[in-house]
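A favour, since you know our structure tokens better than I do. What I am after is a single protein written out in full by you. Could you add the entry underneath, on a fresh line?


***
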Amino acid sequence: MDNRVVIANCGSINLLVNLLHSEDMKVHENVVTTLLNLSINDNNKCSIANANAIEPLIHVLHTGSGEAKENSVATLFSLSSIEDCKMKIGRARAFKPLVDLLENGTPRGKNDAALFNLSILHENKARVVQAGVVKFLVELMDPAAGMVDKAVDVLSNLATIHEGRKSIGQEGGIPVLVEVIELSSARGKENAATTLLQLCTNSSKFCNMVLHEGVVPPLVALAQSGTPRAREKVG
């Protein structure tokens, strides 16, 4: 049996979650690291969520050391693969500290805070946008950041709501998305095309902006050589 399951079955998860309320930052670091390790097992994910760990983990995001914050967000990212947890994390007001980590965190912290799992759930989308995430996602589409695909994944989710489309346009996302179609991976091109399609379908203003950025030649190239889904979107 997986050692993670054995440890969880001994009743350790509730004890660990209670320790997240400690004022000792070193305790935070050790506990969150242990919970992160336990959360790798899918059964443990549910046990951690059922132990009411989400709000204490978000508390650590606000108050913990750099290492504790990173491991806390990695644990939340792990839990967010469970459908019920997406809702619980969203309702616990996690987005502002997660967005702060996108702005100020290490590459690892930014990678785990990319919010893709959470932005899939419709009720979370407006909250994610209101937390100011789009500005930083546009910045992370710079190839030097090494996160183009993940950033575009989240934007394609957010572009399905009015607030998301408006923010993408206001934060300068359109020229960057066109550049992704020209230069990025197959996955990045596909999701950038999907995002631009959402913008153009719902706003003549954004459609004109997209055309002004010279999107037609890269779209023609994508229609000829892209993935089946990308060709469908371009068509």
Observations:
- The two ends are 50 Å apart (CA to CA).
